[in-house]
Amino acid sequence: MHLITSFALLLQPSVEDILLEKQRLQHNYEFLSYGLIAAWLILVVYVLMMVSREQKLKKEIAGLRAMLEEKH
Questions:
Q1: 21 CB-near residues (< 8 Å, 6+ apart)
Q2: What gap in Å lies between CA 70 and CA 29, rounded to an integer?
Q3: DSSP string covering 22-72
């Protein structure tokens, strides 16, 4: 019984191990946050570009329709 208890105590992580793991996880979450922010910014810029293109196309279509009506 004493051998099992001693072995179990050896397997327990030390306070330093726990603090190092906590630091590593916080560092990983920091990079994850930066990645998510970058992805959302790229998505927002892309959507704004598409909206701008749509507005330009609508103006061009309206101009073409006006030209067609003038010819008839």
A1: 13
A2: 61
A3: HHHHHHHHHHHHHHHHHHHHHHHHHHHHHHHHHHHHHHHHHHHHHHHHHH-
Distance CA 30, CA 51 (A): 32
Q: What's the rounded Cα separation, in Å, for the pair 50 and 47?
A: 5
CA dist., res. 46 & res. 12, Å (int) = 50
pTM (whole model) above 0.70 = no
pLDDT in tens, 32-67: 999 999 999 999 999 999 999 999 999 999 999 999
Which amino acid, 24?
R
